[in-house]
Amino acid sequence: MNLYNLLVLLIFLSCQNNSSTVPDKNESTEPTVAETQEAATLPAGRDLETMNVSKGVINWTASKIGGQHLGTVHVKSGSITVLNGTLITGEFLIDMNTIENTDLEGERKTKLENHLRSEDFFDVEQYPTAKFLITEVINGSEAPQATHTITGDLQIRNITRSITFPANVSFIGDQIMVSTPAFNIDRTLWRLKYRSKALGTAPDLIINDDISLVITVDAITT
User: Which of 26, 63, 113, 155 has a Cα-to-Cα distance from 83 of 20 to 30 A?
Assistant: First the structure.
C-alpha cells in the first residue's frame, strides 16, 4: 500500500470513530419525565416501604342532653407507607358491622347497636365499610400531646369529606404505631342527621352533631 492510500484509510477510520461518539443533534440529553418522577419518588439512599395494619380500633363517644354513649369500631385492613422512616401516607378499611356500644348491657346494648347499623345512622347493609386515606402528614401539631398533624379523606355511606386531626407517630423496630388524642367530626357532613339540631329536633331529644373519636393503629413490616 502506497503512502497516499494509507493516508486515505486513516482519515476514513478517524471519521467513523468520531461519528459513533458524537450524539445526534435531535437526541435530548435531558432526563425523561419518568426518570424525573422516579427520582422525586425515591430519593437516592432512601427506601419506600409499605407496612400492613396488624391492629386498628376507633373509640367513639356520642353525646346528648343528659348523657352520652361510648363504643368502638374496628379497622378491617389497611396499609401505611413509610419513606426513610417517615410516615407519608396510608389507607384503611373500616368494618362498620363491628360497631359496638361499650357502656350498656343486655337488651339496651343490642337495641342501640342495631339502631346504629340501621338506615337512621350507618346503614351497614348497604354500606358495610368506611374508608380513610391519608393525604398529608405534617411534623408537629398544635395539640401539645401530639407529634404530627394528619389530613385525609374519610368516606362514610359513600360520602367523602376531608378531615384533619393530631396524632402521635412512633416506631419500634419493624412496627409503626399511630394514635390520636380525642378529636371531633361533624356527623352531618356524611348525612348522619338522625335527631340533629339541623333538622329542628326538640331540644331535649337532640343528639349532638359532633362525635368524638380516638384512633389507634399498629402496622408491621411483613
Answer: 155
